[in-house]
Amino acid sequence: AALNTLGQMCTDFGPYLQEEHHGAIFPKLLLQMETEQVPKVQAHCCACIINWCENLDPTALGPYLSRLMNALGGVIKNGAVIAQEQA
């Protein structure tokens, strides 16, 4: 539920939320995607990251891009189908 709420907040309050709070939120989203063992939660995390990136200037992802690509690659390679579809 928290991931769904955060995803909706990204849509409603973006890009302000992403620009002002990326340091506190985005690393935790990446960690959740990298370590989550429950496929449905991992899928929700991937979906939240989609919402996070929608209203964001692409250059703002620069500091996180390598980790984001590695995390997405890990989900695509090893995740359940439900998470792979979101990744």
Roughly what percent helix?
Answer: over 70%
Please count the beta strands (DSSP E, at least 2 residues each).
0
Rounded mean pLDDT score: 94
Radius of gyration: 12 Å
* H/E element sequence: HHHHH
Instruction: Report the uncertain regions.
Output: none
| Distance linking N and C termini | 19 Å
Structural class: mainly alpha
What's the shape?
Answer: globular
How many H/I helical runs? 5
- The proportion of strand residues reads under 5%
* Biggest pleated-sheet summary: none
Protein architecture, described:
- There is one protein chain.
- The protein is mainly α and 87 residues long.
- It has five helices and no strands.
- It has helices spanning 2-13, 16-35, 39-54, 65-78, 81-86.
- The protein starts with a helix and ends with a helix.
- The mean pLDDT is 94.
Describe this protein with a few key phrases:
78% helix, mainly alpha, 87 residues
Layout: helices, strands, pairs:
Layout: H1 2-13, H2 16-35, H3 39-54, H4 65-78, H5 81-86
Helix pairs in contact: 1-3, 2-3, 2-4
Short description:
The protein has 87 residues and is mainly alpha-helical. 78% of the residues lie in helices and 0% in strands.
